[in-house]
């Protein structure tokens, strides 16, 4: 009976099966040209047949090994050639991603059981199946991880590049399956073990873990709550066993994983055992000595400093890590940064002072020894010529460190409570120079795209009237206008302008020096006002005493907005608060589902301020009209309770 399969698919079977025990790998690569890859992958039935064939062979090999303890070489060769062909094809064409990933997910429960990969790190399942799945997940979401992406994945027949909103949505659908998330963590563990063992052909790290951490951090934390501890253990193991060059790729992916998770739950990193010590060691490992692979002051310094500021929200974690404190002092003692690199003196010194003042106020009544030993650095820092922005901050912090590390001050602190107001930011619970953004990169309010539709390198457009609404094209702009932006557009402009005018200086809006008000455009000032960050003391266990929700709710409604147009994000340890457009927040990685937020305000007819805490599982507080003092004829008492 004649085959009903397309001729090209029949030719594909002949190439991957070959004429003997070992098919010709080069023939497979040559056959899978970009045009051939597109022709096969753009046909959903052909793409599904290709991956289903691989699934069947791998299933048979896994069963065979479980019974006999050995593998059929013919079967292994056949599986390897199929995996290799799909690897080549998906590098050249993205058109089959949905069909391929769908077939993978169908086979996942029958092929993978948690723990099976670590039992045999050389298993055929990992070598030809999980490796391909991991690469495909990375490729379909590469624009989320690498900007600009390193792979075109576009043959001449593929049409325009795929918008990254589609990739994000695809990864989001995958992340619904906790089994896949556990697989991504276990596969990273396997690649670390294989790299440490210097196994042939095992150079690359598991990429899907970072993909899920960056795009779906809450799903990852729900499926694997101890992922932060696992990552830190892997970092230490890699540095113990390998050279910087051999460990660099794995360490970079692991750092990206921590960054992704910290977006929704920074406290988890601060509570992790040895986090500050391990992060500092990673920086030293990659940037110093003859084997260094990263220049000091470059990307590695930026990432590690960012994560140490996250850890610093739990000051005791830094105080317990002398190497981390020494790292901070070394950054302050370093000369001017290389061209094109930022200076870390202000945040490093601020973090050191944060630890010093809290240590003095604690039961120990002492400053950690590395900070006392660095007193000459603080003296030099305090004498820096002030030139505005970060220099002024660094000099002021240096003067405060000189004071708190002086012996008379430290001795006095042991017999009486240290005076308040030593730090330049004494009115705030955490150094402003060390605050990490609570907001995320802009995305289209309607579809989640991070760039203009069909133009990956073109930035998103802003609403020409208010400058706040963000869109990837006319279609999404019109959809958002009909969905409610028509009502809120003018109100956003008024709200942003009012918030900007309320700030003491535009420097507070920009975080690093700001700009001259005379040169700041109206739209830029409006956006800066909308996303302005404020700090309050949020450490009280009872949020009913907070005054800022009442003040901000009045500001929102006074501008003509409705409370359902905004959400507030808070980070209690650092006292950080930012009120953002709900339409923008809905597109963020790890956003609390819209259904949950709508349900939270439903009891108040939508007139409620929803406050989202930066923790996981997500914690949403709702301040209703009574708590906010918005009911006609009432004013909120100082101790008003949450509605």
UniProtKB/TrEMBL annotation:
It comes from Porphyra umbilicalis. This is MYND-type domain-containing protein. Keywords: Metal-binding, Zinc, Zinc-finger. Gene3D superfamilies: 6.10.140.2220. GO terms for molecular function: zinc ion binding. InterPro entries: Znf_MYND (IPR002893). Residues 444-489 form the MYND-type domain.
């Amino acid at each position: 009976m004649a085959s009903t399969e397309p001729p090209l698919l029949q030719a594909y079977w002949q190439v991957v099966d070959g004429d003997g025990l070992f098919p010709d790998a080069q023939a497979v690569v040559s056959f899978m040209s970009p045009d051939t890859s597109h022709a096969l992958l753009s046909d959903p039935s052909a793409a599904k047949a290709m991956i289903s064939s691989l699934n069947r062979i791998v299933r048979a090999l896994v069963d065979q090994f479980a019974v006999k303890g050995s593998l059929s070489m013919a079967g292994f060769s056949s599986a390897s050639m199929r995996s290799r062909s799909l690897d080549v094809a998906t590098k050249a064409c993205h058109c089959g991603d949905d069909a391929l990933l769908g077939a993978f997910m169908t086979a996942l429960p029958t092929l993978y059981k948690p723990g099976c990969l670590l039992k045999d790190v050389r298993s055929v399942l990992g070598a030809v199946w999980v490796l391909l799945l991991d690469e495909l997940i990375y490729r379909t979401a590469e624009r989320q991880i690498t900007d600009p992406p390193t792979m075109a994945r576009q043959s001449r027949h593929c049409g325009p590049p795929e918008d990254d909103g589609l990739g994000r949505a695809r990864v989001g659908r995958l992340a619904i399956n906790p089994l896949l998330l556990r697989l991504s963590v276990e596969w990273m563990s396997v690649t670390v073990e294989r790299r440490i063992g210097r196994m042939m052909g095992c150079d690359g790290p598991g990429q899907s873990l970072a993909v899920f951490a960056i795009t779906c951090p809450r799903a990852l934390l729900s499926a694997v709550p101890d992922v932060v501890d696992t990552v830190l253990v892997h970092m230490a193991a890699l540095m113990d066993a390998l050279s910087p060059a051999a460990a660099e790729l794995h360490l970079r992916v692991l750092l990206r994983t921590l960054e992704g998770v910290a977006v929704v739950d920074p406290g988890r990193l601060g509570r992790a055992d040895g986090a500050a010590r391990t992060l500092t060691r990673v920086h030293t490992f990659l940037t110093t000595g003859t084997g260094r692979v990263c220049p000091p002051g470059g990307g590695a310094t930026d990432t590690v400093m960012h994560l140490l500021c996250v850890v610093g929200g739990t000051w005791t974690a830094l105080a317990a890590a002398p190497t981390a404190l020494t790292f901070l002092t070394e950054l302050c003692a370093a000369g001017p940064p290389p061209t094109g690199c930022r200076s870390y003196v202000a945040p490093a010194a601020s973090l050191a002072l944060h630890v010093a003042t809290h240590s003095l106020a604690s039961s120990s009544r002492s400053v950690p020894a590395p900070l006392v030993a660095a007193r000459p650095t603080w003296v030099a820092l305090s004498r820096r010529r002030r030139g505005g922005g970060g220099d002024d901050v660094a000099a002021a912090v240096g003067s405060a460190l000189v004071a708190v590390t002086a012996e008379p001050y430290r001795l006095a602190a042991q017999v009486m409570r240290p005076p308040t107001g030593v730090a330049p930011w004494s009115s705030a619970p955490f150094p402003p120079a060390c605050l990490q953004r609570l907001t995320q990169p802009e995305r289209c309010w309607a579809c989640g795209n991070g760039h203009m539709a069909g133009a990956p390198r073109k930035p998103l457009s802003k609403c020409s009237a208010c400058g706040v609404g963000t869109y990837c094209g006319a279609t999404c702009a019109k959809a958002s206008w009909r969905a409610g932006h028509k009502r809120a557009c003018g109100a956003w402009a008024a709200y942003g302008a009012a918030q900007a005018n309320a700030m003491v200086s535009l420097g507070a809006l920009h975080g690093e020096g700001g700009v001259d008000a005379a040169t700041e455009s109206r739209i830029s000032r409006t956006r800066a006002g909308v996303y302005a960050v404020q700090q309050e003391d949020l450490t009280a266990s009872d949020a009913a005493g907070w005054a800022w929700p009442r003040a901000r709710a009045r500001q929102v409604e006074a501008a003509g907005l409705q409370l359902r147009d905004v959400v507030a994000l808070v980070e209690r340890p650092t006292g950080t608060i930012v009120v953002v457009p709900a339409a923008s927040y809905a597109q963020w990685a790890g956003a609390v589902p819209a259904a949950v937020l709508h349900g939270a305000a439903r009891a108040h007819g939508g007139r409620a301020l929803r406050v989202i805490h930066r923790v996981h599982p997500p914690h949403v507080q709702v301040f209703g009209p009574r708590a906010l003092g918005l009911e006609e004829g009432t004013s909120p008492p100082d101790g008003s309770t949450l509605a």
